[in-house]
Amino acid sequence: MDYRIEENINPRDSMVSDYSDDLNDITYEIIGACMKVYNTLGKGFLESVYMDCLSIEFNLRNIHFEKEKKFEIIYENIKIPHSYRADFVIEQKIILEIKAQANVIEENIKQTLNYLAVSKCKIGLIINFGENSLKYKRVILT
Question: What is the pLDDT of residues 26-85, one digit of tens each?
Fold first, then answer.
């Protein structure tokens, strides 16, 4: 699976020509909602607190989302017992993973890539509320 990472780049300034302006606009709105939550709460809370606040913010902004979306894994036409649960799926197009840790690590990127694979979405956002300022990475399948 080929991908690239954009870090802390305004989606509207991105070079993502592979995807519609609609996806860039949705990404921009998601990051704006995350910034509002971060500016209100700051760092130091659990991921679940940020997720609850984001649910409220998405509703206020009329952003359609599914929280803790479960994805089943099929192998050889058989559903295996293990499944993935993405923090959010936004507008049925973007995977959003919330973190509250010192920094985003390679394992977080691999996790997001797995979610992209099972969801068939093309863009994933990893938002980290655990640093001194809001940090985000956009994982883009190419």
Answer: 999 999 999 999 999 999 999 999 999 999 999 999 999 999 999 999 999 999 999 999
Rounded-to-integer distance, Cα 109 and Cα 120, Å:
16
CA–CA distance, 7 with 126 (Å, rounded to integer): 10
Q: How many residues make up the chain in this entry? A: 142
**Tell me: the pLDDT tens digits for 82-91?**
999 999 999 9
pTM confidence score: 0.90
Strand order in the sheet with 3-7: 3-7, 135-141, 123-128, 94-99, 78-90, 65-75
- Please, which residues have CB within 8 angstroms of residue 7's CB and are 6 or more apart in sequence? 135, 136, 137, 138
Domain ranges of the chain: 3-141
